[in-house]
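In response to reviewer comment 3 from the previous cycle, which asked for concrete evidence that the modeling workflow produces usable outputs, we include below a single protein chain processed end to end. The sequence was submitted unchanged, and the resulting structure tokens are shown without manual editing.
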Amino acid sequence: MKIDPAHLKRYKEVATLLYKYSRTNLFSGAGLDTPEAGLDTPEVEGEADNMASNLARDLEKLGPTFIKIGQLLSTRSDLLPPMYLEALSRLQDKVDPVPYEQIEEAVQNELGVRISKAFESFEKTPLGAASLGQVHRATLRGGREVAVKVQRPGIRQQIVEDLESLAEISRFVDDHTEFGRKYETAVLVEQFRSTLIRELDYQKESLHLGEIRENLKEYTRLRVPEVIEDYSTSRVLTMEYLAGTKITALSGAVLADLDGDVLAEELFQAYLKQILVDGFFHADPHPGNLLLTPDRDIAILDLGMIGRLNQRMRDQMVHLLAGIADGDGVQTAEAALKIGEERDGTIDRSLFINSIEEIVGSVKMRSLENLQIGAVVLLVMQACAKSGIRIPAEISLLGKTLMNLDRVGITLAPRFDPNESIRRHISVFASKRMKESLTSANILGVLTETKEFIEQLPSRLNRIIGLVADNKLSVK
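The workflow returned the following structure tokens.
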């Protein structure tokens, strides 16, 4: 292991964290149900739920890089058990704001002009402060209200140094432990590095905003802020200010008077389009990132975290979701195998298919209110990991995205039935997918796959309708 003296303190902190949780069930989601033998760490004894909460607190103490890593881990059901996923999803990315003087200097350095010249007004108190940056309300010359997202000074260098330390430790783990050899922690750290560096580049977030804004323009009840490019750089992002109330903060009176079914339908369809048609989706639609505007529309904020699915992933996700809806464990398992990659080529396919059939079979036993499609997708991903199938991180991220949509949909319209929505619109999505897939080079393959899917579609829809009629299936 290459030791960088500048990182010694971080090495010790991370090693202590790994040692502390080595006797818990932290990695049981990845198939490691037995802790390392021979370690005696009484400070970690206790209930699993308490240990999961302790891990979240320990990551918060380590600072911004580890808070973000914890949030990313909360999307990896293929690695961690449910209690850890839940605890990490609640990680608080809230910090004391940077003093205004530092923000003013950062904005002026990035834009090359004094704040007083660029803006008619610029509020000194931020609307919100997080580990990577904070957002200030401002007004441009000419009167347009904007939100200005400013990166915290020095945060980029801190994250780069932390990631270098983690990379060194992960290489050591891969070289000297069974877990590292099997699950390639260096690859995992590289995925974290790529995601965090992307989040630090506000020009990339600007492109995300523009692309998703264009992709969702047909959904008139959804609002994505417009970027003000002349006032944006890699460290400053200026965008249209959208006023509103967080979905989680809506009063009972407002919800009772809201056309929640219409909004839930529009939101659900927009995300299905992003996932199955565009292959480019907002991956963090938790209730805090969705606002109800004064016009009773939904504003979608914070597009730093996005997911991408290639055409093969999109095709197989359709088969996987259809298999779940049909209660067809074999089809679901085959789709998962096509999405993933066998780690060592020794997977017991029969055992894997049986495990998926058990998961999918449980769908038939659940009531309309108790089944969440995101939760089922994540259970399938966990079964893949335990069977030695490497699933792309994007698919786990997709499952977490669907779970967040579950929460939003329940808040907006507790009786909203996404199954009915799918039945109404599946032909539209199939048409869009075919149109965007067809080229002179791949037309034969696409038509063959589409023919196969359409031939099976009537039985699938009949199965879905039957399950819903029997109150046994829901996609929330």
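Confidence is low (pLDDT under 50) at residues 32-45. We consider this sufficient to address the reviewer's concern, and the full set will be provided in the supplementary archive.
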